[in-house]
Amino acid sequence: MDNELLIRTEDISDDRILDLYVETTQDRDYVNELKKTTPVILVGSRGVGKSFLMKVAYKELFDAFPRDRIMPVYITFTKSSLVSVGGNNEFHGWMMSRICVGIIRQMRKLGLSVPSRSLDVLSGGQYQEQKKLAIEEIKDAYEESWRKKTDIDRNTIPTVDELKEAIEDFCLENNVCRIVLFIDEAAHVFIRAQQVQFFTIFRDLRCPYISCNAAVYPGVTAFGNVFQTAQDASFLNMNRDVSSPDYVDKMREIVEKQQPGSKLLNEISRQGEYFSDLAYAASGNPRLLLKTLSKLSGFKASEINSIIKEFYKADILGDHSLMEEKYPSLRDLVKWGRDFLDNTLLPELQKRNIANITSGQTTCSFWVSNRCPKSVERALDLLEYTGLIIKDKSAIKSSKSEVGTRYMVNIGCLLSLEANPLTTAHNIITNFKVNKFIEYGANSPAFDEIKDSLSVISENEVSDSLQNQLNKDITVLDISTKMKKKLREIGINTVRELMEASERKIMEANYVGKVRSRNMKNAAMNSVYEYLIS
User: Fold this and answer.
1) Contact, 47 vs 292, CB < 8 A?
2) Nearest of 17, 5, 523, 22 to residue 262 by alpha carbon
3) Confidence band of 459 (pLDDT split at 50, 70, 90)
């Protein structure tokens, strides 16, 4: 089936973003908020569409720049995984250099990079249009530090105050109203001290000439004491409401935008209920839907049943378990979360649904007391980070009037328990009641086996993990089998070898020219960065 779909926003050019944009009321509200002066923190698990919405807001501002004079700057922090740092100031230095390079790059694109004192400050020295700037050298040195740690001269990196003053001068000189920073993959690093540093910069950059927006993951982000979550930004949650009347239609439109008139689209039209079940299984996550569709060779019930069982039971749960391998200090929390999902929560939900399906009282929800052990709270945060559960609402009372948090489990994981998911999926989904949840009180027996341990990941552990991941075979990467075969043809078998390969090296593969080698390199590297930060 011709179902090669664009799974990641990084693989979509800026010129195509608006063509592929499927607007919901919530999405339009969020895009509008991202374009305002008030700082926004966009929160959501991998694949829910944070990057895409930021790119939509960016592109709309970019297209309107000649009229509105608001300059958008999109920056991704994906390469922070490669930065080998030995102290807080080093990571701070990389962030500042990355932001400066992003701003200069956009100035050049808009033809606003006329040499001036403000550009000298941003450049880390005298600005020269045709030469690599000192600030670019510094950024690159940080991002190459995974190969060999070297001393980096930070003296020319501007301070936050110097950056703000330079931006003010630049805006006044070029009739620019303000700069809007879209910082993607922000604060994803598990080192909490570095997360706190990011949000300190985020807060301190706020001024009449700079607006900041950032995309973060739920559950694992530390804001620190300086950043006030109630005052320093608006928080927008990217959870999509699967009970919305137009939910399936909007998910179908995402596919239609990518493949108008395709065989896949014809199959979806012919087997509408099968597509609906796949859309609900994705639990509002477009990437999960696109991944399951891309795995189908046909649109038969037997194959869809197999995909749901394999993808949600093996792949998604397996991704969660990878954290245990990457960060040994999280082993107890990750293992308990996986066991809780596999052996307690999902079977209990399945049992509840079997008993209540005829009365229209099915559920995918569960509730946890606010007085549960801190270790349980942290383990649930990790499940939320990987998208296995979704935090629905806080301050919900249980049947015993105890206050807690209501969650929704990933529907695909629940359906994967069934011998034939499609035979029960529709009944479970259409009879779903959010207020019929399973309760886990503060002293629930389900919490007995977890240690009350709140391990903190160290910089050394992250550094060791990076080296281990670089030595893994390319089978761990989320790229096509065809691309993996091409890479192996030219002797690229590990993540490290791919990181070190040039476009010229990739051109050695059969039938790969200059343009295709660049596209292959970019797609492969996007997968590497996502793999390293997950």
Assistant:
1) no
2) 5
3) low
